[in-house]
Design a protein that fits this description.
Layout: H1 2-32, H2 36-100, H3 105-114, E1 135-138, E2 141-144, E3 147-148, H4 166-181, E4 188-190, H5 195-209, H6 211-217, E5 231-234, H7 245-253, E6 259-263, H8 268-271, E7 276-282, H9 285-294, H10 298-302, H11 317-324, H12 340-350
Helix pairs in contact: 5-6
The structure holds zinc ion.
Zinc ion binds at residues 226, 231, 233, 279, 359-360.
InterPro entries: DD-CPase-like, VanY-like_core_dom, VanY/YodJ_core_dom, Zn_M74/Hedgehog-like
Biased composition (Acidic residues): 332-344
Region (Disordered): 89-135, 328-360
Length: 360
């Protein structure tokens, strides 16, 4: 019993001693070490540390904000650039679509509405070559403002064989009578020609001189006004006809009867043919007088071309030569490209080739 009591007492003492020791230790740290001045100093140090920490925190936040701002700007820039690229691509596609098919206006409209409203619908419409004049195709014939046009660009079908136009014939008869009263004798050298007749005529020229030269004054089959029955070669079809009393009378008066000198001097680039003082085309009195007074050839007036390469089924001189089994250049020349121009002017001077009575 005593031993147990003693042990308990010793334990109590030990625990009390332990508490005291710990109390003393605490006091040593908090009170004993720091004087009031030291406490104030410590507080000051703590405040400085806190201030520095806050400053460092603010700096960190500021830096992070800057980085974030730069990142946002970069992202915005990338997005904008990709958006612009996409917009441009879409616009280009639309442009191509509108240009390629004006007729498909509905699909273009749909695309335009799909894209942003800020991009106005681009109306890029390919204008037709002739805007002022109405071109109609009827049974293979081409009418411009109601006038039948037959030239290097516009042909007539092979089986088109109307014969001579009765109004044209009547007008010529009247003109011929009036000319006779003036002491001028006019006659029809060549009027209506069929496709086959024109074929033979053209072939003979092309065979003799080559296609390039034949194209200057003779029409390919299907491209001759003579097949339409609306024109006449009057009197001589030689260049020597120019300047004669008959040629002068014809030029001065033919419009009074509804005719025009179809291939006037200086209009070769429009008509596609050399000057032919003998070839007259019937267009009616009103138009004939207008064209003559304004010094316009039919192609100029109607705003159309006369060029085999612009025809619906273009045939090059090389292809034509191959079809006919003839040469492009002068077959008599060794060198086709040189010397051909020289001999060209000589043909009419000696009059050797136009003696058969057919010009164009
Ligand atoms: Zn003719």
């Amino acid at each position: 019993m005593n031993e147990n009591n003693n042990r308990n007492v010793r334990d109590d003492e030990r625990s009390v001693n332990g508490e005291l020791t710990s109390l003393i230790d605490d006091r040593d740290l908090s009170r004993v070490v720091l004087s009031p001045e030291e406490q104030a100093y410590e507080e000051m140090i703590r405040q400085r540390i806190r201030a520095r920490r806050r400053a460092a925190e603010r700096k960190r936040i500021k830096r992070n904000r800057t980085i974030a701002l730069i990142l946002v700007m970069v992202i915005v820039l990338i997005v904008c650039r990709s958006c612009y690229a996409a917009h441009r691509k879409k616009r280009d596609e639309q442009k191509v679509n509108t240009e390629s098919s004006v007729a498909e206006k509905t699909s273009t409209k749909k695309e335009n509405t799909d894209s942003n409203a800020e991009t106005p619908a681009e109306t890029v419409e390919s204008k037709p070559e002739e805007t002022e004049h109405k071109i109609q195709q009827v049974d293979g014939l081409t009418f411009v403002d109601g006038i039948l046009i037959v030239n290097k660009t516009y042909s007539v079908p092979e089986d088109y064989a109307p014969g001579i136009n009765t109004a044209a014939q009547a007008a010529f008869d009247e003109m011929m009578n009036d000319a006779l009263n003036d002491g001028v004798y006019l006659y029809i050298n060549s009027g209506y020609r069929t496709y086959d007749e024109q074929y033979n005529l053209y072939y003979n020229y092309a065979y003799d001189r080559g296609v390039a030269d034949a194209d200057k004054f003779s029409s390919r089959p299907g491209h001759s006004e003579h097949q339409a029955g609306l024109c006449f070669d009057v009197n001589s079809t030689e260049n020597s006809f120019a300047g004669t009393t008959e040629a002068k009378w014809l030029a001065a008066h033919c419009s009074d009867y509804g005719f025009i000198i179809r291939f006037p001097k200086g209009k070769e680039k429009y008509t596609g043919y050399e000057y032919e003082p003998w070839h007259i085309r019937f267009v009616g009195v009103e138009l004939a007088k207008e064209l003559t007074s304004k010094n316009l050839c039919l192609e100029e007036y109607l705003g159309v071309t006369s060029d085999y390469t612009l025809a619906q089924d273009p045939v090059s001189q090389e292809e034509m030569a191959e079809q006919l089994g003839v040469t492009v250049g002068d077959p008599n020349e060794v060198d086709e490209t040189q010397g051909y121009e020289e001999t060209d002017s000589g043909y009419y001077d000696n009059g050797g080739y136009s003696d058969n009575g057919y010009g164009y």
